[in-house]
Amino acid sequence: MFNLSRYFSTVSFVLIVLAAGVLGPFYRQLSLQQITELAESRNVAMAQIFENSLRAPLEELLVASLGRDAEFLRQSSEVAILRENVVTLMRNTSVVQVKIYNRLGVMVFSFDPRQIGEEHLNHPGFRAAMAGLLTSELEKFSTFAGFDGTRTDIDVLSSYIPAVGSGGAVEGVFELYQEVTPFMHQLQRSLWWVTAGVFMVFALLFLMQYVVVRRAQRILEEQEGRITSARDTLELQVEARTEELKRTNTQLQGEIGERRQAESKLNYLAYHDPLTGLANRRCFIERLEDSLRESAEQGYQMAVLFIDLDQFKQVNDSLGHGVGDELLVSVAARLTDQVRLIDMLARLGGDEFICLMERVRSEEELAIVANEIIDAFDLPFRLGDHELFLSASVGISLFPRDGMTVVELMRNADTAMYCAKAIGRGHFHFYTPEMTRDAQARIRMENLLRRALEHGELAVHLQPQVDSRSGLLVGAEALARWTSPELGVVQPSHFIPLAEDSGIIVPLGNWVLRETCRQVRQWEQSGFDLPMVSVNLSVKQLERPEFLDVLRGILDETGMDPAKLKLELTESVLMGVGDPSAMLQRLCELGISLALDDFGTGYSSLSYLKTLPIQQLKIDRSFITGIGKSRGDEAIIRTIMQLADSLGFEVVAEGVETTEQATFLATLGCQQLQGDLHGRALPAAEFRSRWSAYA
Ligand code: C2E
Ligand code: MG
Ligand code: MG
């Protein structure tokens, strides 16, 4: 680590030595200069005194010396006079030697006679003085010959001073020696003191700073210690974090893998039907959108084929959803295998499949494909122990003729499929604009019917059922009637199927049931006792798990005697319910009785019917119409009568319009008759006034 103290000590020491080395000589130089200036001024003053005091002999000597030899000068009286005077003047001064030169540089005066006559013309001090300048020189002598004897170890300042004559010109030069030993000694001492002082101050400064620096050094060391330990901790943390990140990363990689798998699974599920593996609705719509664009650009026709299984619901209801699912898988496989011309097959949901056919050339081509689809159902489906016969209805819409958008094409193919179904099982139908008009009319009617229920546009009419022998009233059938402000009187044959399709039949049927019970009970309380009333029941009502509770509620609410209530069911109703026997049993437990309506038109075997808790059969009107015209119908009626008799069923004939029919039926032992011959369905009030006398 950087050692601040050591660095500071070294640098400070060097700087102090340098400062002392510079300051000492500087101070010495300054002092010497002062001493020199002082001594010099004294020398000048002394020379002035000599000049003033000895002017006459001095001038004489300087003039007389010119051109004379040394010996003459030594012997001259002027020199002797001068010596006396100079000695007198120099006594008690610090001047220790005087020499005088004439203009030619010849020494004319000295206390040492041997020097007189020496020539100093080229001496720089002499030459400068002759030029009017003053020069001095400080010298140290171990022995010095002064005017009063020899001296040892002295410091002397010698000055060359111009000697100016009375005319103002330089006539000669004084060389004055002044002893400065005391000054020099003093200088030496003060130099020593100054140096010592400087050293002391610097040392003190150094010490003070050293203390500060040492302290700073300690703080730095402490900080460094802290930083080092913090860094160590940090390194440990970084190491731990790196490890953790590595672990998390590995974990993340795993999670990412799992997520990718999940995503691709989700992606698959988003575009496929998980049951059959076929494309789903979303996938079909996207593909159809692409095909539409392409077909529009290239001017091709394309078609959407809507396929719906005809009896799937019955299979599902009677054999369970497991078998239903298996059947759908088999249907999907068969469609995929047999229908090779189509471009895409998808399952929309339930028993609805849809196909896309691109580049269609003609309707004939489509008819071939549609027939292929229908024919694919010719062979039965084998599922475990079951062998199921199924058929499909196909509706077809064409681009661009029947629609330009995905929605239009799919909706119109669906509409066409409904029409195909209406023709009968196992058919196909092309879409026509009339279908949409019919569908729109149906939708309008459906909306009106919904409102009709809320606005009280419905009513219950009653049709009498009479005893074939006595002609007395044995009961009545409750029949719904709709008088719409927009459509006028609408027949049940119109609105009941619509109500069935749309599900309105559930509230409507329940309303009829409640209204009938209320009416019959009210009659009963007011003295008109209708022996029995029949109410038609839809499969949709029976399917509802809450139906029994609804029925119980109605009986409780109205106070209706269940023994006087009969529910009419058709064979198709029984086919639609999972376990009809159990369901009907629960109804019977309430005390009500059951009739099988439109009997003879369905396919149920009589032995099967025997297992059901049914009390009455209603021979369908179509057979009654045949009495007197069709031997076949008459034979059927006869057979029904015999069977009913042997199985203990009561029989009602419906749609009896003539006395011939009535007589025929009565002869065969048919107890009850219902039909226009005895009376049409009437509103409650009219029914009462017409029939109360026959009850
Ligand atoms: P349905 O239950 O077989 O009712 C008998 C139908 O035959 C009634 O038609 C009745 O008016 C008619 N009818 C009776 N005698 C004669 C006759 O001598 N000659 C002719 N030509 N017809 C006769 P309606 O009232 O039009 O009902 C038709 C069908 O609508 C009913 O057939 C029944 O299936 C259904 N329906 C009526 N009301 C209801 C209801 O409240 N609920 C349910 N689920 N269905 C109902
Ligand atoms: Mg009926
Ligand atoms: Mg009927």
Structure characteristics:
single chain, alpha/beta, Beta-Lactamase, Alpha-Beta Plaits, TIM Barrel, 3 domains, five-stranded antiparallel beta sheet, 23 helices, binds magnesium ion
Report what the structure shows.
The chain is of the alpha/beta class. The protein folds into three domains: 4-185, PAS domain (Beta-Lactamase, 2-Layer Sandwich), CATH 3.30.450; 281-431, Alpha-Beta Plaits, CATH 3.30.70.270; 443-691, EAL domain (TIM Barrel, Alpha-Beta Barrel), CATH 3.20.20.450. The chain is 56% helix and 21% strand. The chain contains 23 helices and 22 strands. It has an eight-stranded mixed barrel with strand order 13-14-16-17-18-19-20-21, surrounded by six helices. The chain has a five-stranded antiparallel beta sheet with strand order 2-1-5-4-3. Helix 2 packs antiparallel against helix 4 (77-90) and helix 8 (312-319) packs antiparallel against helix 9. The two termini are 126 Å apart. The model has no long low-confidence stretch (mean pLDDT 89). Bound molecules: ligand C2E and magnesium ion (2 copies). One magnesium ion is lined by residues 477, 536, 568, 597.
**Structure ligands:** ligand C2E, magnesium ion
Helix/strand structural class: alpha/beta
- Helix amount: 55-70%
What is the assigned CATH homologous superfamily of the largest domain? Answer: EAL domain
The geometry reads as: rod-shaped
Q: Regarding CATH, which class of the largest domain?
A: Alpha Beta
Average of pLDDT: 89
Calculate Rg over CA atoms: 73 Å
User: Which range does the strand content fall in?
Assistant: 15-25%
- Give the biggest beta sheet: 8 strands, mixed, barrel
The neighbouring-strand order within the major sheet is 13-14-16-17-18-19-20-21
Distance between the termini: 126 Å
Total helical segments: 23
